[in-house]
Fold:
Amino acid sequence: MDRPTTPEALAEVAARRPLGSGFGPASTADEVLAGVPLTGRTVLVTGGYSGLGLAATRALARAGARVVVPARRPETAAGALRGVPGAEVAAMDLADLESVRRFAEDFLDSGSALDAMINGAGIMACPETRVGPGWEAHFAVNHLGHHALVNRLRPALRHGARVVSVASSGHFLSGLRRDDIDFRSGYDRWTAYGQSKTANALFALHLDALGAAQGLHAFAVHPGSILTPLQRHVPRDEWEGLGWVRPDGRPPAGFKTPEQGAATAVWAATSPLLDGHGGTYCQDCDVAAPAAGDDMLVGGVKPWAADRAAAAWLWELSAERTGVDAFA
Ligand SMILES: NC(=O)c1ccc[n+]([C@@H]2O[C@H](COP(=O)([O-])OP(=O)(O)OC[C@H]3O[C@@H](n4cnc5c(N)ncnc54)[C@H](OP(=O)(O)O)[C@@H]3O)[C@@H](O)[C@H]2O)c1
Structure:
């Protein structure tokens, strides 16, 4: 029921195939960006001061880009990015739409333009938390905050710009719970994370559909599995059962480093191979194939994360909640 598979969505994912990028799960962000001309380019990375986002920021800066990092903890962000040339921090909390508006207005006032946005900030498996008028926190932070940010920054996105939604194979866990998006009953932290990650994929699908004619493209990515501060809300005694750590204490096979985890996002933000494939969901630096099973380490894309009707419904709800729709 929460993971609908319409014939149209099944057909959409069935058409998806890797393109043969030459990169793979072990590729790093630096390898993906080797030879990519980023001098004079500006990329915004939410969450660009921790985990995968920090690795993406460092690699983009090394490749010559100016990297703008909106942060809910600006001092921490400034510390993490000290010595990274071209990285700039500004205050913004995705859980606070006023702060998103202030950040976006300041950015627009500065006259800067954006070549790409990597929307990587996120929370996972939190205890039940309410944001703003009572919205469920995963949906509000991971999705609604980014909806507002991208739509407010639309005037700064150059022709040919790309928006990358950092989703997850966590989308396997839930489609959109259209009749109870905010978990008015039956809160479950993993279902809430899963719904928000499906929302990230659907956001990219619909943004691309709206923006393509104006030269704006969007992609969703699953970065892989990487141990970062993202797991902080999950008690340590649950980690072994979740397969995040082996009995000897080491990360399990198939996990990536942050530098490998950042690779698909920077690839999606820059690779010419993706021209003509807007709206797709990517993993391991390529378009993801349809998910063949339920193993999140193997990944792939499920139909409810590629459902155009659900994506249009989500956009309308998000525009209504945030009060922003740059395409209306
Ligand atoms: N790690 C994985 O295995 C994995 C797998 C699949 C998908 N992902 C996705 O990858 C993305 C990055 O994850 P990560 O592993 O790099 O996690 P991370 O190290 O915890 O980084 C998340 C970032 O998001 C920021 N953030 C959280 N709430 C925010 C808010 N309200 N406003 C602004 N920024 C906020 C955090 O800021 P603070 O430090 O101030 O909290 C942090 O900088 C997430 O979207 C996650 O869902 C990760």
In short: DSSP finds eleven helices and ten strands in the chain. The chain has a mean pLDDT of 96.
